[in-house]
Design brief:
The protein is of the alpha/beta class. It has one domain: Alpha-Beta Barrel (TIM Barrel). 29% of the residues lie in helices and 19% in strands. It has 6 helices and 9 strands, in the order βαββαββαββαβαβα. It has a 9-stranded mixed beta sheet. Helix 4 runs parallel beside helix 5 and helix 5 runs parallel beside helix 6. The longest helix has 14 residues. It is globular. The protein starts with a strand and ends in an 8-residue tail after the last helix. Bound molecules: D-xylitol-5-phosphate (DX5) and zinc ion (ZN). D-xylitol-5-phosphate binds next to strand 2. Zinc ion binds next to strand 2.
């Protein structure tokens, strides 16, 4: 099973005033990625993190970005985001007629191309781009808003996707999960085969405890070794 990576979601940081302190806690806890949601108000009914905000994030923290593009025709807009080598960039299969072109363009930046799938989008949409992707972002809620509830059948979708990727000889391809990745859901998603976890309002940024303590609790809940309950 692939090493787990934590990708806290920037849009869930409630107080941007204290963002610097939050980033310090994230860095101190060694989170592997920072999830940055960009929304255009067309692909999803919301606006979030414009191009300048994403560029400013890089000045505020050294954590590599995990950019989630919820925008129409992303293949034509990649240059807007100053993508850096090693970053993860997810484009939605539903947002372009040129998915393979989008993925190869992301690769040209030295970044990791990821395909995001909405809950109703079947796994076979990635069947002919397996050579072009580093991972699949499984939306476990409908995209656009934080604080939603897990769509239950997404757990089975994660397991089917993991089996499909392994059967196709692509065990190195990651599965990222995004949406209501709570302490309890995170564990179920890990058991189903996920390895990158977008931490949002129901875990890392839940007001049950500090960000640092939430991170430690999440890793404990999700790590396979521990039988720790949630
Ligand atoms: C929703 C975004 C998610 C969101 C997750 O469209 O893609 O990254 O921030 O928020 P929670 O974890 O609260 O569902
Ligand atoms: Zn996201």
């Amino acid at each position: 099973m692939k090493e787990m990576k934590l990708s806290p979601s920037v849009m869930c940081i409630s107080q941007w005033r204290g963002a610097e302190a939050v980033f310090k806690q994230l860095e101190a806890e060694g989170v592997e990625l920072l999830h940055a949601d960009a929304m255009d108000g067309t692909f999803v009914p919301n606006l979030m993190l414009g191009t300048e905000s994403i560029k400013n994030l890089r000045k505020m923290t050294s954590i590599p970005l995990d950019i989630h593009l919820m925008i129409e025709h992303p293949e034509d807009k990649l240059s807007w985001f100053d993508i850096q080598p090693g970053e993860y960039v997810s484009v939605h299969a539903e947002s372009t007629r040129n998915l393979q072109r989008a993925l190869t363009r992301i690769q040209e930046y030295g970044a990791k191309p990821m395909v995001a799938l909405n809950p109703a989008t079947p796994i076979y949409m990635i069947e002919d781009v397996l050579e072009d992707l580093a991972g699949v972002l499984v939306m476990t809620v409908n995209p656009g808003f934080a604080g939603q509830r897990l769509i239950p059948q997404m757990l089975d979708k994660i397991a089917r996707l993991r089996s499909f990727l392994d059967r196709e000889g692509r065990p190195e391809v990651s599965i990222e999960v995004d949406g209501n990745v709570s302490f309890e859901n995170g564990r179920k998603m890990r058991l189903a085969g996920a390895d990158i976890f977008v931490g949002g309002t129901s875990s890392i940024f839940s007001n049950e405890s500090t960000v640092a303590e939430n991170i430690r609790r999440f890793r404990e809940c999700v790590s396979m070794e521990s039988g720790v309950g949630v």
